[in-house]
Amino acid sequence: MKHKRWIAFLLIAGMTLTLICSCKTKEEEDFSAQVGEFVENEAPEEKEEEPSEKEEKEPEKEEPEREEEKQPSEEEKKEEPSKEEKEEEPTPSEEEKKEGKVPSEESDPDPAPVTKETSGTPITIMVQNLKTSGSQTADYQGQRTDTLGRTGQANELYSRARRFRENVKRVDPDVILGCEGKTGWVKWFEEEAYFKSNYTLVYNWVSGVKEGVDNDSCTLVLFKTDQYELLDSGIFWYAEDPTKPGSFVEGGKHGCTWAKLKDKTTDAEFYALAIHIPNNSYEGGDSGFKCMEVLNTFIDGLPAGSYAFAGGDYNIGYRDAVYEGSVEFDKMFDLKDQALNMKADGLSEIGGNKGSVNTDYEKDKYGGIYGTPPVVSDPGDTQKIDHLMAKPNVNLAIDYWGYDYTTVSIPAENVVEGYVSDHYALVAKVRIGTDADYSQYQERA
Hints:
Elements lengths: L1 H48 L3 H18 L3 H6 L3 H6 L5 H5 L22 E9 L18 H4 L5 H15 L3 E7 L1 H9 L1 H6 E9 L9 E8 L3 E10 L17 E9 L5 E8 L10 H14 L7 E6 L7 H6 L6 E2 H10 L4 E2 L35 E5 L5 E9 L3 E3 L4 E4 L6 E8 L13
Parallel strand pairs: 1-2, 7-8, 10-12
Antiparallel strand pairs: 1-15, 2-4, 3-4, 5-6, 6-7, 8-11, 9-11, 12-15, 13-14
């Protein structure tokens, strides 16, 4: 009985303890829930009022970064013009852009375009092959015996020499570069009143057996006596040894007469070369390449910065195989190309350009009027065998280039209308010692 009471007591005590513990746990859960609800409601206000150290430092970092974005660095300040400089800088007009005074936004500003100007020493050069297949025996003072009776035209030296005189008066060249000048032509230039009083002749016999015979001819330079001083002159030969008479063509001799001239007014100096390349190259031979190699070497050997003009009958067609294989533009270039390049910028003019071979000559090799400008509408570049080459020089400009197809009649001297030769003259107007740099135009057009 006593044991039963103790067991009952223990059971009652255990139940009481369990009840007490369960009530405590519920109170703790209610307290925890109240604390969580407080944290959710009150924490934001506490963060705004009392920011952490990290949050206090972040605004300080952001503020300097904004200032750096607004203010350029010292390097940027140097590169960027000031407000005053921007206001003073003029804006080019559309008219200035068209005239080439300022580079356009689309073009390459280097080198700057050259504007039209007239600086430098002007020189007008005429290139003329003098010989035709008509009689060369008649003296310039003799009778017109060659073709007058058979064709009604007069193309012997008597008439052609007078036509040439009238052409020279009209063009008024400062320098004439000629080839195939026979003995009658030499007498004409030395004795005729107009040439004797206005021009000085420099020449060398370059073909034929000996000096003075009928089949002999010369390359020659004529220059205005009052305008130029002759500083030096000479000849080189188209041969293995250019210092000795000879030729790359068997059985002949061919050479280039040259003169160094000085303008008496401006002291400007230049070389003038009279060219006649043997026509073996015209028939597919290799003499053209060899002759051009000699010419290139001579011009390349002239003093640096000097000016040189080589004009005449090259017997090489413009842009044909020999031309392309032998014209070394770094040593000498075609003034026609410079004229074409400058024309594209409105800085030069091109005259007659149909060809330098008088094609009507082929109709009657021993007579005829020597025709009108080439019979065919476009004879092609191979008909352009008379050229004017030049030594590259940055201060060399060309204002005009063209073949001259003018016919001449002189009723007072009983000379009917006709041409000087079976080659048309080439006329070019250049300027040396210019202020502007024209090197960009001295390349193949």
